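Notebook entry, structure prediction.
Reason for the run: the old model in the group folder had no record of what sequence produced it. Starting over properly, with the input documented here first.
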Amino acid sequence: QVHLVESGGGLVQPGGSLRLSCVVSGGTFSRYAMGWFRQAPGKEREFVLAITWNGGDKLTGGPAKGRFTISRDNAKNTAYLHMNNLQPEDTAIYYCAASLRPLDYGLGDRPYEYDYWGQGTQVTVSS
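New structure, fully documented this time:
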């Protein structure tokens, strides 16, 4: 059984930075494309970033442009979300997800395109 565990969330002031981590166990991490989504109270889950199994291609969602990046370390079974210049509107629960979607189909930006999910980590941006 595949498990994803996010960490690194917390309270940060506007303009600050955070790095979220997602450790995957119970499966072959290098088989998965990895994605990050977020969900604010009362809103739908929103795509942030995704990365192919080898890091060779990435897909960027609207919230991430110019501020967030994604990376992965297959030796550590871990994906990362690097967030800079955080703003109050970035406050949300951040989820990582793993996808077995064939590479030929490209990276997904919809929740249904991902097979496994973590429990989420809260990010709060406030002064």
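Summary: The radius of gyration is 14 Å.
The old model has been moved to the deprecated folder.
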